[in-house]
Amino acid sequence: MIRAQNIFIVGPMGAGKSTVGRQLAEALSYTFKDSDQEIQRRTGVDIPTIFEFEGEAGFRARERQVIIDLIAGERMVLATGGGVIIDPENRQDLAARGVVIYLHCSAEQQHARTARDRNRPLLDTEEPLQRLRELMEEREPLYRQVADMVVTTEKRGTGSVVKEIVRRLEEGATGVL
Ligand SMILES: Nc1ncnc2c1ncn2[C@@H]1O[C@H](COP(=O)(O)OP(=O)(O)O)[C@@H](O)[C@H]1O
Ligand SMILES: O=C(O)C1=C[C@@H](OP(=O)(O)O)[C@@H](O)[C@H](O)C1
Ligand SMILES: [Mg+2]
Q: How far is the CA of 148 from the centre of ligand 3 (A)?
């Protein structure tokens, strides 16, 4: 049984990457990392503050560096931010260094799960649902391009999502367990 590889979770805001990633790491006894949390730890400020002072470009540069530093690990579940796949080098690195799981759900579901918190500057607009739809249109092909496994989180609890991922990893489709 090979248990050395990393698992990278990608997908849009509100798909449940951070929540499912943490629970999956626990289920597998892997280390858990979250690229947004790592950026916040390194800078000492929250994500909206980084966007405010450095713009999205500054945030992407920090995100890129975190990916470079973290992918060297092993037995790690890494929850990425929804825009990580915009950078072709991130896509290449994630695909090369672990199993990539794309957590998928509708824009309506993303909206329902993100409406209450103000921690996502890209959704700080009059029409967050419309913004989520536009982002999905741009990014969906990129999520699919890097994904080894696509799992829906639409209208289901995180426990069920984690169980499905573990089962599919064990079935050997990806060679990680
Ligand atoms: N399957 C799910 N069912 C219900 N709520 C969920 C589910 N997955 C995540 N959530 C909730 O939605 C919000 C966003 O989840 P999060 O893990 O931060 O998503 P992401 O990291 O993909 O943006 C959190 O409040 C979380 O508790
Ligand atoms: O989709 C995006 O571009 C972003 C998603 C966020 O992470 P989550 O997907 O965990 O919400 C965070 O990285 C930042 O606000 C930008
Ligand atoms: Mg997250």
A: 19
pLDDT digits (tens, 9 = 90+) for 126-177: 999 999 999 999 999 999 999 999 999 999 999 999 999 999 999 875 555 5
> Which CATH number fits the domain 6-170, given the four candidates 2.170.190.11, 3.40.190.10, 3.40.50.300, 3.30.565.10?
3.40.50.300
pTM for the model stands at 0.96
Q: In what order do the strands lie in the sheet with 6-10?
A: 31-34, 76-79, 6-10, 98-104, 149-152
Find out whether 18 and 79 touch, Cβ atoms under 8 Å.
Answer: yes
Query: How many whole angstroms from its chain centre is CA 148?
Result: 14
Q: How far is the CA of 110 from the centre of ligand 1 (A)?
A: 8
**Residue type at 78 in one-letter notation:** L
